[in-house]
Structures are given as structure tokens and as C-alpha cells.
Amino acid sequence: MADKGNLNLGGDAPQAEEKSGGKGKLIIIIVAVVVLLGGGAGAFLFLSGGDEAEGEEAVEEVVEEAPKIPLYRDMEKLLVNLEHGGRTRYVQAEMQLMSYKQKAIDQAARDMPAIRDGLITLFSSQDFAALKTIEGKDALRADALQAVNQALGLTPPDAIEKIYFENFVLQ
């Protein structure tokens, strides 16, 4: 007679096939996930890695985008006389030079006599009536900026970028 423990009546066979099929599916899913994760990681490294030179350019771009800190240089009071309508008139101005480059500020301090000479010449050639208007003051500011940079021999981006009037008196 056959032993009951060794008898295979077909009842356990489907379960064994299901377990075997389930393990096979699980292995296929795990392999697929590993392959996808590996491919994704490889693509990420490939796209973000690049050359070292490209990485350095990216760092330089970030540094250039950092907020700029303005540097100022105070100028002594400038008092200039000019003729208007047969009378002597006076223009008194106190100004600040502004640049983002320390080199320009240092050079302005060193070459202040040349800057003042250029500004005195410029201010004394102005039309007194025009300086009473906002437009006249803005035009003088633009001309003064050009005169300062010309005296320093600087061009953008290493130049003085703005001139601010702290005090402006017409008499």
C-alpha cells in the first residue's frame, strides 16, 4: 500500500506552482526595479556630472549673480562760480561716487585732484537756468559721471557707476 504521506493526489500541486510562480514574479519585479533605479541614477550622474570646466563655469555664474555691494567715496564740497545774466552765480555741490569695484574707489581717492579739476571745468560751463530744473541736474549728473570716469581712465564694468548729489545749492 502507498504511504499517505507520499501520496500525491494533486491537491498540493497547484499550491506549489503558485508559490513557484509568485517567487518568479517577485524576482522579476525586483530585477526590474533595480535596473530602473540604476538607469535613473546613471542618467542623473551623466546629465549633472559633465566636464570639470562646465562645473567651474556654473560656479562662476553663481558667483556673478550674487548681490553686488556698492562702495562709496565721499568728495569734498565743490564750489564753482559761473556767469548768468551779467551776474556771478555760484553752484555748490557735495557728492558721493559709487562703484561695485574696490579698484575704482581706490583709484578715485588717489586721483581726486584730476577728478575735481574735470568737475570744476564742467560745472563752470553750465547754464544756471538749466540747473534749476530736475532735468538739468540729471544731465549734469550724467556729464559729471562721464567726466569722472574720463579723469580716471576707467570703462565699465570697472568704472564709477553712479554719482549721488548729497547737497546741491544754486545762488
Walk me through what this model shows.
This protein has 171 residues and is of the alpha+beta class. The chain is 56% helix and 19% strand. The protein is built from 6 helices and 4 strands; from the N terminus they run ααβββααααβ. It has helices at 13-49, 52-64, 102-110, 112-124, 128-131, 134-152; strands at 71-74, 78-84, 87-99, 162-170. Strands 1, 2, 3 and 4 form a 4-stranded antiparallel sheet that branches. β2 and β3 (87-99) form a beta hairpin. The longest helix has 37 residues, at 13-49. It is rod-shaped, with a radius of gyration of 40 Å. The relative contact order is 0.11.
Note the main attributes of this structure:
alpha+beta, single chain
Question: Unreliable stretches, pLDDT < 50, 5 or more residues?
Answer: none
Summarize the amount of helix as a percent range: 55-70%
Helix/strand-derived category reads: alpha+beta
Distance between the termini: 133 Å
Rounded to an integer, what's the Rg over CA atoms? 40 Å
Note the run of SSEs as H and E.
HHEEEHHHHE
Return the average pLDDT rounded to an integer.
82
Binned strand content: 15-25%
Number of strands: 4
| Gross geometry | rod-shaped
**Can you summarize the main beta sheet?**
4 strands, antiparallel
